[in-house]
Amino acid sequence: MKNSYDAIIIGAGPAGLACSAELANKGLEVALLDEQATPGGQIYRNITRTSSRQRTVLGEDYTEGLKVIENFEKAAPDYLPRARVWQAEPNGEVFLSHKKSSKKLTAQFLVLSTGAMERPVPFPGWTLPGVMTCGGMSNLFKDSSLAPTEPVVIAGSGPLLWLVAEHLFALNAPIAAILDTTPSKQYITSARHMPQALGRFGYLMKGVKMIAAVQLAAKKAKVPMYRNVKNIEAVGNEQLQSVKATCGNKQLEFAASTLLVHEGIIPNTALLRQIGCEHTWNPVQRYWHPEVNEHGATNLPAVFVAGDGTFVHGAKSAEYKGRLTAMAIAKQLHRLSKCEYKQQAAPVREQLHKELQPRPFIDALYAPRKDLFAIPDEATVCRCEGVTAGRIREIVAQGFSDHNEIKSIIRCGMGPCQGRMCGSAVLELVAERSGIPAEETRPLRMRPPIKPVSLQELANAQLEETDES
Amino acid sequence: MPKYGKEYQMSNGKSKFAWNNLPSETVTIYFEDAPCEVPSGVTVAAALLGHDDNHFCRSAAKQEKRAPYCLMGVCFECLVEIDGIKNRQACLEPVREGMHVKRQHTLVDEKK
Asked: Less crowded by CB within 10 Å, the N or C end of chain A?
């Protein structure tokens, strides 16, 4: 490992893997940093080590990742797993913690391919042990083949909900209920995007088939399934015991020891915010995403963003975005002539456009529902500091609309997660109570270190350039 | 030789998860000083969830019991003490032979 590179890529999901491979293949000095122990990101998590049984359950969309890994391994850029980047700077400096010590690397270009996360949506009881996300369950299975043996309730909205349900049926997990929170009217409001989505008919059919298969499996196994579900609540004393919800006038309650929730996927902007990328608000999916062009170029000349971090478009798109970013950087470093660039980028851009065709439909169908953040006053919003929705509303009513101010007054967003879990909700609560549109409120600043590093480690950090090569 | 079958339990019986497909190699880690045999290569979070589902840590402010929520490094609800070092994210750390893992009950803000 050297100290200085042409490009440093942060995050080894499909975008980071494809980007670093493309750059290395063009003869550039590249380092790929990742906080996990094995490459693949979340979507292809642990793919180099999963058993054939795990791969059978996870299906083709998962094993697609093997090709990405193969290309990456052939290109062989420097790869540092278990490296936690805690600060990055627009001049290409990266500070990271690895094996209990911190050091600085520098590069002419940085690619932030830190991907996406599940939208954190507070509801009563969501902090109880036993409540986790659908993606979390999926990760657990990919990591370790663990599957639930006690009753599970699956609740929320979005393709991942159905995918995880499908996996759990394949594993014979005891599913207590499936609660779909997608409002029926979104099937109508999203319909206008259908013609464009039909450009990828096969992709749509795959989704339809998956949902139909889950519904059939649920019927066979007599698993209750409800649509238009609202007011999810986790009940229990220091551990989940049951899940309550409403469906129309009906009160539902299911005994369960695990509740898997999913309310969509949003870009993970922590590092992007810390470095200072400008962001734009998406009113359909209601999230902040960095302002980038087609190659992932940001307002910072040396900083690119690739993958789901630019906007949630899925694994295949992330791979294409990673390659396009690599080509743009190679062009800037004069490894590609204008003409070569045009030639190489055109087919990838075309593939990306094709891949994006169904996204407006999916984004509209699974848009966050209107009352998603109608959080009861007593529910905890900031998990770390234990701040309730009611307390946040009080502060907003006093005239505070900036999450940074709210944080300094009631510590909401000040804990170890640094606002990653409460950010989306605070934004919506501010909008609800103050009437200020979410996009006009000031987002939470991310201050380094964005990952916990001990003071001792900081004191001993090797921050001077001592390039051994 | 690794042990398989009903007589051999990697879980202490409290877990609501089971290994679906046991890896052939195991390592011994110490959870709250008690040895427990877990599949090699898995994350500390998976090892603990497969062993004992109780809780990983207590929340910084209210000392409520917490367990992993996101399992992808974002929520910081799986913070444990590993080999004497606090604030380790269990979902990102692979198990290692002889590793000592403890529940984190008081958050040490080492940035201060």
From this structure: C
CB atoms within 10 A of CB A467: 8
Rounded mean pLDDT of A357-374? 96
For A379, the 3-state DSSP assignment is coil
Q: Which residues contact A441 (CB under 8 A, 6 or more apart)?
A: A401, A402, A403, A427, A430, A431, A434
Angstrom distance (rounded) from CA A298 to CA A65: 27
Rounded distance between C-alpha atoms, residue A299 and residue A303, angstroms:
8
Dihedral angle, C-alpha A367, A58, A234, B45, nearest 10 °? -120
Q: Is A424 exposed, middle or buried (0-12, 13-18, 19+ CB in 10 A)?
A: buried
User: How far apart are alpha carbons B56 and A256 in whole angstroms?
Assistant: 20
Decide: A92 and A286 in contact? Cβ < 8 Å. no
* A104 within 8 A of A3, measured Cβ to Cβ: yes
Cβ atoms of A405 and A235 within 8 Å: the answer is no
Least CB–CB distance from B61: residue in A82, A385, A455: A385
Contact B107 A416 (CB under 8 A): yes
Q: What domains can you pick out in chain B, each with its CATH number?
A: 1-112 (3.10.20.440)
Exposure on the CB side of residue A95, measured as CA atoms within 13 A: 22
- Weakly modelled stretches of chain B, pLDDT under 70: 1-13, 23, 53, 106-112
Phi/psi of residue A5, nearest 5 degrees: -135, 165
For β-strands A265-267 and A146-148, DSSP reports them as unpaired
Q: Are strands A279-282 and A258-263 parallel, antiparallel or unpaired?
A: unpaired
Among B51, B66, B71, which residue's Cα sits nearest to residue A46?
B71
CB contact under 8 A, A452 and B77: no
Tell me, what's the pLDDT at A464? 67
DSSP string, A393-406: HHHHHTT---HHHH
The one-letter amino acid code at B92 reads L
User: Chain A 344-403, CB below 8 Å of chain B: which residues?
Assistant: 383-386
Q: Mark which residues 26-65 of B lie under 8 Å from A by CB.
A: 39, 41-43, 45-47, 49-50, 53-55, 59-62, 64-65
Question: Is the Cβ–Cβ distance between B53 and B27 less than 8 Å?
Answer: no
pLDDT digits (tens, 9 = 90+) for A273-293: 999 999 999 999 999 999 999
Interface test mutation site (partner A, options B63, B76, B82, B88, max chain A beta carbons within 10 A): B76
Interface test with A, best of B6, B20, B57 (most A CBs within 10 A): B20
Q: List CB contacts (< 8 A) between A452 and chain B.
A: 76, 87, 110-111
What structural domains does chain A harbor? 4-117+266-336 (3.50.50.60), 120-263 (3.50.50.60), 380-440 (1.10.10.1100)
A447 touches chain B (CB under 8 A): no
Mean of pLDDT values over A98-103:
93
